[in-house]
Automatic annotation (TrEMBL), chain A:
One of its GO terms (molecular function) is glutathione transferase activity. InterPro entries: Glutathione-S-Trfase_C-like, Glutathione-S-Trfase_C_sf, Glutathione_S-Trfase, Glutathione_S-Trfase_N, GST_alpha, GST_C, GST_superfamily, Thioredoxin-like_sf. One of its GO terms (biological process) is glutathione metabolic process. PROSITE patterns: GST_CTER, GST_NTER. The keyword Metal-binding does not apply. It is an enzyme of class 2 (transferase). Its EC number is 2.5.1.18. The gene is Gsta2. Residues 3-83 form the GST N-terminal domain. The lineage of its organism: Eukaryota, Metazoa, Chordata, Craniata, Vertebrata. Belongs to the GST superfamily. Alpha family. The keyword Transferase applies. This is glutathione transferase.
UniProtKB/TrEMBL annotation, chain B:
This is glutathione transferase. PANTHER family: GLUTATHIONE S-TRANSFERASE, GLUTATHIONE TRANSFERASE. GO terms for molecular function: glutathione transferase activity. It comes from the Eukaryota. Belongs to the GST superfamily. Alpha family. The lineage of its organism: Eukaryota, Metazoa, Chordata, Craniata, Vertebrata. Its EC number is 2.5.1.18. Residues 3-83 form the GST N-terminal domain. Gene3D superfamilies: 1.20.1050.10, Glutaredoxin. Pfam families: GST_C_3 (PF14497), GST_N (PF02798). The keyword Transferase applies.
Length: 215, 222
């Protein structure tokens, strides 16, 4: 049964947001089922559909896929966003892993004590922004063609800007990149109100997540 | 320039060990440069060879690769250890990611304070026996094949044998409820390239000790 991919997660960004971005950028429509209570999560576990008892879980092409990176790699390859050969894939993987580190740190900021937040954020943005900026002068990061790396970087840039609005002030190439990427039709659509893009985590959402996952 | 991959890391397991395992299992010889001082690390950063100012660094096929997962994916792809199609790759990725989560607990263990160590061992045991090992026990039982995916040796098998041995170092009887994994462990350990890697004198690194922890803190000043 072909059907649209179906995403199982809480109604917020977390680890699922990168998957929403990639599907949207690839022009793939998807459905979502939201976990709102601990019982919802328990039910999925009891139904035996979560390989390691965890979400994200994405039903796609007859598989119940878990592990964010595995899901993203599959989607990227399926929709030709993973470069043309092994070497281009290596570059895409390196960039994606770096931006994942950056976003991971931003994602966990709300769960950290207040005093560590400021320091951590400054540190990671300085480190990662500089290195990607240095790359080169093409429109896209790898192989002069839109890839998963570009989509992931845009997501990271926007997330970083939400934390610190002037974060791109020292990175003109990234600013231009952001402008170009935001105008790609599928991405432009995803950035508009009413899309499946989720808002940044607020206090209320954080409380729900803590309750569902016991953290 | 020999053409062999060249690994730059500390003289210990850390995040580089899965790379050593995979290269060894694939029968690929490699060279190693060991970071012993902060100065060496700072020089690497200054020379601009570390994309995100971090190691592991693997020089391979003209690339200076960083980010462990990227490196492992490349090696797996290059040496036909990544399945025959997209769906097999998806399974291998899922298995590897799960095992990596378990290995992460082992990775950080040496750096936990003494009073937390016993609790951490219990957590590792709990996760291994309740969350991760049962999955692979079931997979092997269901298809009855020697390897996890597609009846062929893959990155997933290498990652699993590494994890089994690492957990056993902490919890010797951890496989007692898992007969399939016991048989898997034996089969993998007897594969020629892996057997060689498990012998003394191979590039395999010993479990982290206090000296290793001190070196990590010194070089990276966490």
């Amino acid at each position: 049964m072909a059907g649209k991919p179906k995403l199982h997660y809480t109604k917020g960004r977390g680890k699922m947001e990168s998957i929403r971005w990639l599907l949207a950028a690839a022009g793939v429509e998807f459905e979502e089922e939201f976990i709102e209570t601990k019982e919802d999560l328990e039910k999925l576990r009891n139904d035996g559909v979560l390989m390691f008892q965890q979400v994200p879980m994405v039903e796609i092409d007859g598989m119940k896929m878990v592990q964010t990176r595995a899901v993203l790699s599959y989607i990227a390859a399926k929709y030709n966003l993973y470069g043309k050969d092994l070497k281009e894939r290596a570059w895409i993987d390196m960039y994606v892993e770096g931006t994942t580190d950056l976003m991971g740190m931003i994602m966990y900021l709300p769960f950290q004590p207040a005093d560590t937040k400021e320091n951590n954020l400054a540190l990671i943005i300085e480190r990662d922004g500089a290195s990607i900026q240095q790359s080169h002068g093409h429109d896209y990061l790898v192989g002069n063609k839109l890839s998963w790396a570009d989509i992931h970087l845009l997501e990271a840039i926007l997330m970083a800007e939400e934390c610190k609005p002037d974060i791109l002030s020292a990175f003109p190439l990234l600013q231009a990149f952001k402008g170009r990427m935001s105008n790609i039709p599928t991405i432009k659509k995803f950035l508009q109100p009413g899309s499946q893009r989720k808002p940044p985590a607020d206090e209320k959402f954080i409380a729900v997540v803590r309750k569902i996952f016991n953290i | 320039m020999s053409g062999k991959p060249r690994l730059t890391y500390l003289n210990g397991r850390g995040r580089m060990e899965p790379v050593r395992w995979l290269l060894a299992a694939a029968g690929v010889e490699f060279e190693e440069i060991f970071l012993e001082t902060r100065e060496q690390y700072e020089k690497l950063i200054k020379d601009g060879v570390l994309m995100f100012q971090q190691v592991p660094l693997v020089e391979i096929d003209g690339m200076k690769m960083v980010q462990t997962r990227a490196i492992l994916s490349y090696i797996a792809g290059k040496h036909n250890l990544y399945g025959k199609d997209l769906k097999e790759r998806a399974l291998i990725d899922m298995y590897v990611e799960g095992i990596t989560d378990l290995m992460q607990m082992i990775l950080v263990f040496p750096f936990s304070p003494p009073e937390a160590k016993e609790k951490n061992i219990d957590s590792i045991k709990e996760r291994a026996t309740n969350r991760y090992f049962p999955v692979f026990e079931k997979v092997l039982k269901q298809h009855g094949q020697d390897f996890l995916v597609g009846n062929k040796f893959s990155w997933a098998d290498v990652q699993l044998i590494e994890a089994i041995l690492a957990v056993e170092e902490k919890i010797p009887a951890v496989l007692s409820g898992f007969p399939q994994l016991q048989a898997f462990k034996k089969r993998m350990s007897n594969m020629p390239t892996i057997k060689k890697f498990l012998q003394p004198g191979s590039p395999r690194k010993p479990p982290p000790d206090e000296c290793y922890v001190e070196t990590v803190l010194k070089v990276f000043k966490k």
